Amino acid sequence: MLTINTLISWKTDDDNKKVERILWIEPQSNITYVIDVNLNAFPYSRLLSDIEESIKQGIAFIEPDDAFGRIINEEDISEKDKEARDKAWEIISEIVCLEPLIFIPKERRNLIKKVSTLHNVHENTVVKYLKKYWKRGKTKNALLPDYYQCGGKGKEKSTGILKRGRPRKNTEIFGEGINVDDDIKRVFRIAVNKYYHTSAQNSLMLTYELMRKEFFSNEIKVENGIEIPIVKPSSEGPSYAQFKYWFEKERNLKKEVSLRRSAKKYEQENRPIIGSSTAEALGPGSIYQIDATVADVYLVSQFNRNWIIGRPVVYGVIDVFSRLVTGIYIGLEGPSWVGAMMALANATMDKVEFCRNYGIEISTEEWPACHLPDSILADRGELEGKNAENLINALGIRIMNTPPYRADWKGIIEQNFKTTSDRVKPFMPGVVNPDLRERGDKDYRLDAKLNLYEFTQIMIKSVLYHNNQHLLRNYNREEMMIEDDVKCIPLELWNWGIANRSGKLKSVDADIVKLCLMPTATATVTGKGIKFKNLYYSSKMTLKENWFEKARNKGSWKIKVSYDPRNMKYIYIISPDHSDFEKCYMLDYQKSYFDKYYEEIEYLQEKEKLEMKKMADDELQKRVDLMAEIESIVAKADMESKKERIFQESDSKKVQGIRRNRRIEKVLNRENEAFELSKQTDKKEGEVIPIDSDMELLKRKQKEALKKIYE
């Protein structure tokens, strides 16, 4: 299905690629307006049927990736760039919405003249802003300046005649210095390998001095018969700052530690640990309504069904024209921006894959909504503030908020919540029933049996019923709908509107939508991985660039990440120019948290902390018991020692007899420790052996032990 902002690539005779962006679609007149994103030309018209036929014949293709869009958060735009963007938007905002009038050359010419006179700017400036707006996806952020493309960050600068870098002070005395070319770099590598990567563990400064002695000296003087190299002045060789800069740039910690200390030391200490109302809507996607409610049911945890986790928050996104539910979110977050974010992201995603994640198989025709709308109507809450600015500027969506205490302005989504609740409430355990909360009645919260996953399954099936079978008895059909025998079922109204009304649905890459919606937070790069919410992550890029190795050896640092609380298995690092992102994976040893909601992970972590505190108290008591037992044994031994003071020898004799006493003790222990099977004892039960006889027996055994030793 062709929609606004779709990129069409055409085959040409030469190697140049012709790419057009769809700016306007009018199905009734079979006309669409497009613009060539690679040429400096105005929009022109094409027959919609010609584009569709060309795609079928393989002459044209739909481009899946929009390389002209930029992923950028409002808070990351500099004030200078915002000022340039807002100034351009102020000039063209009044005429870009006059579609399709703005695409007709004669009318466009008159509009450009009026705007240029009104704002006192040249006509060419207005034309430049218009083309830039159309080519880059019809969003406000399309007007941002391209300063991010300036410069040569990360590129090696070529070596010329002029000295690079900050000029030296006192050049009359010390000279201007030299540039580090390929020959100097080769000397640096030789010196580092020869003097630094050795077991002598020379400092970097000593390595630099030895390098100058060997490679930057041309004369020799003899003193006392010893040849001493004369080092060139600093103006004729590289400075220590140049040497250190190159060293840090190409530093290999693994090689350094392995050669200076040992490979074993590296492995031990330095390696990485790893969204009447219908009359306002022109068609599908014209207006979405979004709202949240707290479900009248108590849920239990996925970890343990004995843990009651409270009532979930249900977010819904509904199309005003067709009443089709385009997105949902069920969780414990909100009502808040995070909940609204997830519902809007769900409205743009493939519903086949979404339902499959919950064990429900559907076809695309059963739930075809996977686009962004032209505008969203919401409360004065989640979509009011800086979080919504990315929707307005980056995705080109108009945000409309209702006045305070006017929920009736969003009557469609409010009524949908009521009918959904009435439909499923009688069949669910743990439902809120205030009429039963009298003295002596059973607490309905104790009847909770469903977890978040199972409740989401119920809500998905309810949405599928609403979209495909629910009859809208109060929907006022238009005359054309009655002529076409369109039933008042959301899906049929949606499909009719797509075919007969001007399309307002926007095609945006799912990853771009998610990144523009996801909350951002600060994570810490450590030697164990990227630490975020007490979880650890890694990625191919971080491992390749040795992030964790550097963090362990040089110290940790902070980074900004985006995340989805519904799936904490991944977090995302956005590149500095906002043109790409790096996907990070949760480390394998945390498998117990895989595919779990953030709320349940947080609940489990708090539960574990509580259990650890309890176990710490028990452990302390056991340690106290052990201490008491040890003290008892020691006290008994001390008492026995005091009894035998009459046989006490001098200190010197005690020390001299250690070896002999050890040999005697060993012989006696061997007799007691030796294995004897079917051993019979001669002592009768209850028989008391006098102490004197034991002492005589001990003396006799000592004599026998001594005899064996000396034999």
UniProtKB/TrEMBL annotation:
<dbReference type="Pfam" id="PF09299">
    <property type="entry name" value="Mu-transpos_C"/>
</dbReference>
<dbReference type="InterPro" id="IPR015378">
    <property type="entry name" value="Transposase-like_Mu_C"/>
</dbReference>
<dbReference type="InterPro" id="IPR001584">
    <property type="entry name" value="Integrase_cat-core"/>
</dbReference>
<dbReference type="GO" id="GO:0003676">
    <property type="term" value="F:nucleic acid binding"/>
</dbReference>
<dbReference type="GO" id="GO:0015074">
    <property type="term" value="P:DNA integration"/>
</dbReference>
<feature type="domain" description="Integrase catalytic">
    <location>
        <begin position="280"/>
        <end position="498"/>
    </location>
</feature>
<dbReference type="InterPro" id="IPR036397">
    <property type="entry name" value="RNaseH_sf"/>
</dbReference>
<dbReference type="InterPro" id="IPR012337">
    <property type="entry name" value="RNaseH-like_sf"/>
</dbReference>
<protein>
    <submittedName>
        <fullName>Mu transposase, C-terminal</fullName>
    </submittedName>
</protein>
